[in-house]
Every structure is written in C-alpha cells, then in structure tokens.
TrEMBL record:
This is Probable allantoicase. One of its GO terms (molecular function) is allantoicase activity. NCBIfam families: allantoicase. Its EC number is 3.5.3.4. Pathway: Nitrogen metabolism; (S)-allantoin degradation; (S)-ureidoglycolate from allantoate (aminidohydrolase route): step 1/1. Keywords: Hydrolase, Purine metabolism. It catalyses: allantoate + H2O = (S)-ureidoglycolate + urea. Pfam families: Allantoicase. The gene is alc. One of its GO terms (biological process) is allantoin catabolic process. The keyword Hydrolase applies.
Amino acid sequence: MPDFITLPDLALRSMGGSVVAASDESFAEKESLIRPGRPGFQAETFGSKGQVYDGWETRRRRSPGHDWAVVRLGVPGVIRGVVVDTAWFKGNYPPHASVEAAAVEGHPAPDELAAAEWTEIVPRSELKGDAEHRFAVTAPGRFTHVRLNIFPDGGVARLRVHGEARPDLSMWDGLGLDLAALANGGLVTACSDEFYSAPNNVIAPGLARHQAEGWETARRRDGGNDWLVIRLAGRGVIRLAEIDTTNLLFNAPGAVALTGLDGDREVELLPRTRLQPDTPHRFRLGHHDPVTHVRVDIYPDGGLARVRLHGHLAAAGSW
C-alpha cells in the first residue's frame, strides 16, 4: 500500500465535504477544517474574538468533557489515513485528539449522526503545537462521516481524511457517468512523473482554476513520453473522452492517446491525437469493449487540467 498521503482527501470542501456540527466554534469557525490548501496566518491580526486563525478553535473549557467536530465526507470511502494539522496553533492547541468514523446513508441531520454507531479509527493520541500529525488507519469498511475529538479544547487548522472513494453507484444504473471521476470512485494508480502537481488532480471535481490544480510533469529530455493510469469507478464502456488543457498555455502536451486495459488485454480508445493549449477537447470513442483501467499517454510531456471518461458501467455497482 503506498503512503496514504498520496490518496485523495475525501473530506475536502472541494470534494463536497462539510463540517455539519461542532461542540463549539467561539474563536474560529469549524468550516476551516476542510478548506483546501495550507493554513495561512498573519501575526497581530485581531478581530472581535481575538487573533484571527485559519482553522477551528474552541473556547477555554471550564467544564468536564471535550470538544468535537463532525465532518461529512465529500465522497464515502475506505479511510487509509488521517492528518490532524495544528499549524499556527502554538499556545492554544489541544494536547490530545482522537478520530471516529461512521457509515450513515442518506442525508442525516446532526442529531441522527449523534445517535449513530461510531468506530474509533485513531485512538486518543498526543498532539504538538504548530505541527502536522499523520495517523495510518487500518479499520476496515466504508465510512460516510468522521468525528474529530479534541481533549479538552483548543485549535486545529486542518483535518485531512485520505482514502479510496467508494460511492453508491446504484443510482446511476441505466444512466451514463464519468467513469474516471474521483467522486465516482476513480483513482490514478500509476504515473510517470508528478514533478509539479499530483496526477489525481486531473479527475478531481469541478474545473481547474489555475495550472497547479491540474497535473503537470517536468520537461523530458530523453525522447520518451509521460503517462498515467486511471482505475475506473467500475468495469465499463467509455463513449466520450474529455481532455482539458485549460490554463496550460505554454506547457500543454502536443498530443494525447488513450488505451483501455482489461486484464492482459489492451484496447486502443483514442489514437495519438493533436492537442491545443488552453482548450477543452472532446472526442467520441468508437470502441465498445468494457475496460477497467485507462492509460493516458501525453506527448512528450506537459500538463492536463482534467480528464473525463464518460460511459456506462458494464455491471451494476463498483469495485
């Protein structure tokens, strides 16, 4: 199993995550926990509640108990690791934390979540101030929500929940979907180079706002080409490919090719085809054999903003 930090953050706001409840947020709002990017800080920036922090901070607790925050994962999945980041919280961080997870289908309200069955995935562990704490998770099963417990109070800048997406794809029965999308269970399983940015960016939700939100490789000097392999949400037939080079003005690939993989079998989905910079490209595909993975070859190097592979599952359900 690769380092869990390379897997998608299932709780991220841009993945659809939400902090649905918290015991307290007197000094800094709970929503900051799942914000994209590194926490920021500017010293001696005071508001009506004190120093402004890019994170979640509770009041000083004067009663028994501890503080907590409940996060709905943007995409349900198998959790492989959790990061509790206390960046910039130096004299006001919680000395200990634990994390629990639950599987609650539908759209539960906070009181329904409170009554759910919770599984401890990170035991009560010591924290340090202004530090990133990584905890590997071995609990089996698919979860929809996590609860961060801090003992007894204080501030946490970010909570990252890395894992493999396991959405319920039954609602797509008989309909088309993006078989590559992270939100549907797609995952980049191999990549030739990720010097500038992570390959899973190309299958993230939404549009890339700038080139760092896509996948970009170093400049090749060896005459070869760069590539990545996408494990689809499930074995399926791809009808339409979208290859988006938006924001890649002078570093877009010159061409792309798509190859479907199904066991030992390879299927040419799109022959080597010219690309333009800063352009969303759409290609209808004529091959109708189901595949489980797709290799995206770019020539010779460069970056892609997004890859979408629209089609149908060959059978109900995902992996």
